[in-house]
């Protein structure tokens, strides 16, 4: 019950679902990058586009986990893990299918990847090639790690801001409800007289 009140379990499920969706979307973007406008893929060697996708993934994961009004700080590092993991999973999935399609297709029959190429044999065939990207020297593949770091850090910052706001809202004292003014008839005094004006007063005793 305490996990539900703190938003831990709903936050975990929402973050996991968002990470899976983002990983699938990024994998599709990697696989079908030849069909994207050349202005996007060629500008800055594709670095701005990849950074923008990392930020979008971070926003989706953080907003999904923040939608349950979380208060548990355990979700903060998990948001970074989900966002960074979504980038890694998307990169590996898209690159594996692309590499497997190239390896399993004769050179004279190769064409841009399509939905028909999204198969398990293509994925397993190209998986070693995709994993080798993370084993290359950092000086050569620094951009791959940059995308992961940007997504993880952005998700961490966004969800931290959300958790702080939720905690402040729950610890702030509740404002008293305004009381409705008492209705009085016209010319009715605000306070009734303590004694009737027409009632004779008793004389004071010595």
From TrEMBL:
Domain of life: Bacteria
Keywords from the UniProt entry: Membrane, Transmembrane, Transmembrane helix
UniProt KW Transmembrane helix keyword: yes
Region (Disordered): 170-206
Keyword Membrane among record annotations: yes
Transmembrane segment boundaries: 47-68, 80-103, 142-161
Name of the protein described by the UniProt record: Uncharacterized protein
Organism: Nonomuraea jiangxiensis
């Amino acid at each position: 019950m305490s996990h539900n009140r703190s938003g831990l379990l709903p936050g975990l499920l929402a973050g996991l679902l968002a990470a899976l969706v983002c990983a699938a979307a990024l994998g599709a973007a990697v696989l079908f990058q030849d069909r994207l406008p050349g202005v996007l893929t060629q500008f800055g060697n594709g670095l701005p586009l990849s950074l923008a996708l990392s930020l979008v993934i971070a926003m989706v994961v953080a907003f999904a986990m923040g939608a349950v009004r979380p208060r548990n700080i355990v979700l903060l590092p998990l948001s970074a893990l989900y966002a960074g993991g979504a980038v890694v999973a998307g990169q590996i999935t898209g690159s594996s299918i692309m590499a497997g399609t190239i390896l399993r297709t004769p050179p004279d029959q190769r064409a841009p990847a399509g939905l028909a190429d999204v198969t398990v044999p293509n994925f397993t065939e190209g998986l070693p090639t995709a994993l080798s990207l993370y084993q290359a020297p950092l000086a050569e593949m620094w951009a791959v790690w940059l995308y992961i770091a940007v997504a993880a850090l952005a998700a961490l910052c966004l969800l931290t801001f959300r958790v702080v706001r939720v905690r402040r809202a729950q610890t702030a004292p509740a404002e008293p409800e305004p009381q409705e003014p008492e209705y009085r008839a016209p010319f009715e005094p605000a306070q009734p007289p303590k004694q009737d004006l027409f009632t004779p007063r008793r004389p004071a005793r010595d």
